[in-house]
Amino acid sequence: MQYLHAALTETLRLYPAVPVDGRCTETDDTLLDGFKLKKGDGVYYMAYAMGRMSYIWGDDAEDFRPDRWLRNGIFKPESPFKFIAFNASPRTCLGKDLAYRQMKIVSATLVHFFRFKLENDAENVTYRTMLALHIKGGLNIHALPRTGFVKV
What residue ranges are annotated as transmembrane (predicted)? Predict the structure, then answer.
């Protein structure tokens, strides 16, 4: 399950469920670089863009590479300030572990029972950045049952 955890994390790095997020300042504040914020200012970050920044992830930032999360076959997480899909610090998602568990159960079940094939291999998949990440026009796939297993 180490590789599955890495593959799911790599997917969330490139395709975070919440691609843009932000906060409002409650008091005047100064960021570490000296930028001054006034009470009520909005501060936003783009997890979708951050997951593709070579400055953060290296020259292969746009490549899907689950092994970037593995050290000797064991999953090793990055700082939540680098991998921001579940937020960080006091704002870390309380459901993170449950979300991973659910993703693993669903993934294992689907892969066990089905093979998947894109309806149109030549179609270019694009995304709509909204509150949640959407595939523009949907993603049409065929789920083909796997054969050859013993029914219980």
Answer: none
